[in-house]
Design goal:
- The complex is a heterodimer.
- By secondary structure, chain A is mainly alpha-helical.
- Chain A has one domain: MetI-like fold (Orthogonal Bundle), CATH 1.10.3720.10.
- Chain A is built from eleven helices and no strands.
- The radius of gyration of chain A is 23 Å and the shape is globular.
- By secondary structure, chain B is α+β, with helices and mostly antiparallel strands.
- Chain B is 28% helix and 33% strand.
- Chain B is elongated, with a radius of gyration of 23 Å.
- The chains are: A mainly alpha, B alpha+beta.
- At the A-B interface, helix 7 and helix 8 of A face strand 6, helix 2 and helix 4 of B.
Chain lengths: 267, 329
């Protein structure tokens, strides 16, 4: 077989990559433009002033703060519940086990708009006022899934006899958790947690249904686009969002890569 | 002298499945004891009951006279070598071996020293800094052994430890385990489905079938004097003669075991037709159909092998026919 790619394939690959990534570069470029009413190509001039303007806008800080709070808390909730759920499904056999596994994964398969509407009506029925916590609950539904999936995959690859071996050698349940289980699932949890964080940080649809008057960063950006004032501020914020969500995903990728041989070394 | 392990009416049921069904058993201190049986016969569940990974549905277990029925695994003076070795993948070999000592709270220098001694005992000096993933199957096996032995257990449990090794390595490890057991003078409880392994290693062998012990005895006992047709067939694939046939031959109404290698062709009380032949290397096995009862006959190399369809007469020396009086099946 010829391992060298043909010229046509190379051009197609480069074209595909450009198609995917040029728009993102364009957003970065517009963060430096001097024109603030419309996106004009080429930019009439370049300036750093929008970074300063953004820095001094309290609404940006408010939205950023809310988004970080929501992402952190829902990731934390997802880490605890997702891991426990994965452990239960992986380690024991009980009636309805498959059904529970499916139900946990369902929120990410459902369109966000369904999740959003159902949560909104549930909050209404239960008479829960919209707050940061309703946003967090909404985000936790899909954050749990990514943590669960990561943890469940790791549990599957971890031999059950490791836990028995630990207890056989005199370790109590807590010592086993600390010395054997945690070290073996730590990278999976970190990866799942980072993905969950990134998902929550740029979520729009579920948030619009569960947020009330508060604005998370993506919602703030959406609102800002329809307003014709200081447009490049949105681009500056977009750059920050790309960095904040991209870095954790990249880190998660590197953390879980090459760990195939770590867990469940048996035969 | 107290028995190392003692079972009384021990059962472990999984739903409707009786994995272990009211078993009574005594294993002596310093004994190499083999639990032998086909897969699903309850031998591994028995081992897990001793280790504490399973709780009995009924019955009691004593370990050196102490009631251990409800004791968790970490409070039992026994250690296990797992079938898949169960080495901790995130720890190097030395930390794997020292794990039990670390959990117990031994000082770092002391446990390092003990771990290295244990590694030397299994001929793995200098492997302490490697990861389990860098070792071969046989080496992992030895690490698992060292990790269990460093705890100085009174009883070592081995769950089909040689199953994953190739034939040559397996034979070598059989010898080494036997030597090690004699050196240490502790009880080994060894689970296997390989009857050859059981016979060559065990001081005593318990043969399991369907959750029950069919026979306990020395290797010679279970091979030469099987008590039930199952034992006769499973240990060494003996011919089990029906009670009717035995009645016609010697006038007693009970099934009997007749070893394939004990049968001679030429002169004797049975006649039949050869209907299968298999060359085994050191011998040839033929199957003779005697009025519906099929008998396996082992002909050593150099012996005259009859052709398919030949009519032959079968005989055996006195005493080769072992009548299983106690059998009820």
């Amino acid at each position: 077989m010829n391992s060298k790619a043909s010229l046509g394939l190379k051009i197609a690959a480069i074209g595909g990559l450009l198609f995917l990534h040029l728009p993102i570069l364009l957003i970065f470029v517009y963060a430096f433009t001097t024109e603030d009413k419309s996106y004009q190509w080429p930019p009439p001039g370049l300036t750093f002033q929008w970074f300063e303007v953004t820095w001094n806008r309290p609404d940006v800080w408010q939205a950023l703060g809310l988004s970080l709070r929501v992402a952190c808390v829902s990731t934390l909730i997802a880490l605890v519940l997702g891991t426990l759920c994965a452990a239960a499904v992986a380690r024991s056999r009980f009636f309805g086990r498959e059904a529970i596994s499916l139900l946990v994964i369902l929120p990410i398969a459902l369109p966000g708009i369904i999740t959003g509407i159902s949560l909104r009506s549930a909050f209404n029925i239960a008479d829960i006022p919209f707050s940061t916590w309703t946003i967090i609950l909404g985000h936790a539904t899909f954050c749990i899934v990514v943590v669960y999936n990561n943890a469940a995959a790791r549990f599957r690859r971890t031999s059950a006899s490791l836990i028995e071996a630990s207890m056989d050698l005199g370790a109590t349940y807590w010592q086993t958790l600390r010395f054997v289980i945690m070290p073996n699932i730590a990278t999976a949890l970190l990866a799942g947690g980072m993905l969950a964080f990134a998902l929550s940080f740029d979520e729009v649809i579920v948030t619009t249904f569960t947020a009330g008057q508060q604005q998370t960063l993506p919602i703030w950006m959406l609102e800002e686009l329809v307003r014709p004032r200081q447009r490049p501020v949105t681009n500056v914020v977009a750059m920050v969002v790309v960095l904040v969500t991209f870095l954790p995903i990249l880190a998660a990728y590197y953390l879980t890569r090459g760990t195939d041989t770590v867990a469940g070394q048996g035969k | 002298m107290t028995a190392a392990i003692s079972f009384k009416g021990l059962s472990r049921h999984f739903g409707d499945v009786r994995a272990v069904d009211s078993v009574d058993l005594e294993i002596g201190a310093g004994e190499f004891f083999v639990l032998l049986g086909p897969s699903g016969s309850g031998k591994t569940t028995c081992l897990r009951l001793i280790a504490g990974f399973e709780r009995p549905t009924a019955g009691r277990i004593w370990i050196f006279g102490e009631d251990a029925t409800a004791a968790p695994p970490y409070r039992r003076p026994v250690n296990t070598v797992f079938q898949d070795y169960a080495l901790f993948p995130h720890l190097n070999v030395r930390d794997n071996v020292a794990y039990g000592l670390m959990v117990r709270g031994d000082a770092k220098a002391a446990r390092r020293k003990s771990a290295d001694e244990a590694l030397a005992l299994v001929a793995l000096d200098g492997f302490g800094d490697r990861k389990p993933s860098e070792l071969s199957g046989g080496q992992r096996q030895r690490v698992a052994l060292a990790r269990a032995l460093v705890m100085q257990p009174k009883v070592l449990l081995l769950d089909e430890p040689l199953g994953a090794l190739d034939l040559k390595l397996r034979e070598q490890m059989q010898g080494e385990l036997k030597t090690l057991q004699r050196q240490l003078g502790i009880a080994f409880v060894f689970v296997t489905h390989d009857q050859g392994e059981a016979l060559s290693m065990g001081d005593r062998v318990a043969v399991f079938d369907k959750g029950r012990i069919q026979q306990v005895g020395s290797p010679e006992d279970v091979y030469d004097r099987p008590e039930t047709p199952f034992v006769a067939d499973f240990v060494g694939a003996s011919n089990v003669l029906s009670a009717d046939m035995v009645h016609d031959l010697v006038g007693r109404n009970a099934p009997a075991s007749l070893r394939p290698e004990a049968i001679r062709i030429g002169f004797g009380p049975l006649a039949g037709v050869v209907h299968a032949r298999a060359f085994l290397g050191s011998a040839t096995r033929i199957e003779v159909d005697c009025d519906g009862q099929k008998l396996k006959v082992l002909i050593p190399k150099g012996g005259e092998v009859p052709q398919m369809g030949d009519s032959v007469t079968l005989g055996w020396s006195e005493g080769a026919l072992h009548i299983m009086d106690s059998a009820n099946g």
